[in-house]
Amino acid sequence: MFKRLRADIRAIKERDPAARNGVEIFLLYSGVHALIWYRIAHWFYKHRLFFIARLLSQLARFFTGIEIHPGATIGTGLFIDHGSGVVIGETTEIGDNCTIYQGVTLGGTGKDKGKRHPTLGNNVLIGSGAKVLGPFKVGDNSRIAAGAVVLEEVPPDSTAVGVPARVVKRDGVRVCQNMDQIHVPDPVSQELCRMSIQIEKLKAEIQSLKEQHADENL
């Protein structure tokens, strides 16, 4: 547990420009406090002491504003920035070195038992207010833009934008270490731009055919 705590603090120092030192992070960052409570609750959960586990998670929610179900599986180096309103469901799996901003929901759909929450790969960034709902995977090094609603799988090295989210592929580029969650490609605008270019080409071809037809009539 202490080894993971050091990794979590180190990850925050690397990614948060406001973080000055490890002591400040340990004492003042609600995301760190929520992870400490979670790891204790998770131990009780694994030993089938479910009531104690849920009691600890609800206490953590009261003090930090972050709700992490004790059944979730979380790797090392998770940075929950600010954290208010973050909800992480029971069967959620989070890889290493991920970043989650405030208001994020990693939730399930329906009332089915078993795996019903998302799986995040390594180095994934989830922007403010984003909702990732369902038992699919967000691939390694991917980003979910602020306010996006993701309802299906996101490939590795990609960016998901919009409601419902659309995917912009970024093969071979590690995008997570770029902490910008707002200035991301807009796939709708890109598609409209491509359509506009195609329309201009068709108009030019039609005009050329009209001129050719007029010359033949002369």
Task: Please describe what this structure looks like.
With 218 residues, the chain is α/β, with parallel strands linked by helices. Helix content is 39%, strand content 17%. The strands form three sheets. Strands 3-6-9-12-14-15 form a six-stranded mixed beta sheet. Strands 1-4-7-10-13 form a five-stranded parallel beta sheet. The mean pLDDT is 85.
Key attributes of the depicted protein:
six-stranded mixed beta sheet; 39% helix; alpha/beta; single chain; elongated; five-stranded parallel beta sheet; 218 residues
Largest sheet: 6 strands, mixed
Weakly predicted, low-confidence segments? none
Note the total helix count: 5
Tell me the strand percentage band. Answer: 15-25%
Instruction: Return the string of H and E elements.
Output: HHHHEEEEEEEEEEEEEEEH
Q: For the largest beta sheet, what order do the strands appear in spatially? A: 3-6-9-12-14-15
Rg over alpha carbons: 23 Å
Principal-axes geometry comes out as elongated
Number of E strands: 15
The helix/strand class is alpha/beta
What would the average pLDDT be, to the nearest integer? Answer: 85
* Proportion of helical residues: 25-40%
Distance between the termini: 88 Å
Brief synopsis:
By secondary structure, this protein is an alpha/beta fold. The chain has five helices and 15 strands.
Reconstruct the topology from this structure.
Layout: H1 2-15, H2 22-28, H3 30-46, H4 50-64, E1 67-68, E2 73-74, E3 79-80, E4 87-88, E5 93-94, E6 99-100, E7 105-107, E8 119-120, E9 125-126, E10 131-133, E11 137-138, E12 143-144, E13 149-150, E14 158-161, E15 166-169, H5 187-217
Parallel strand pairs: 1-4, 2-5, 3-6, 4-7, 5-8, 6-9, 7-10, 8-11, 9-12, 10-13, 12-14
Antiparallel strand pairs: 14-15
Helix pairs in contact: 3-4
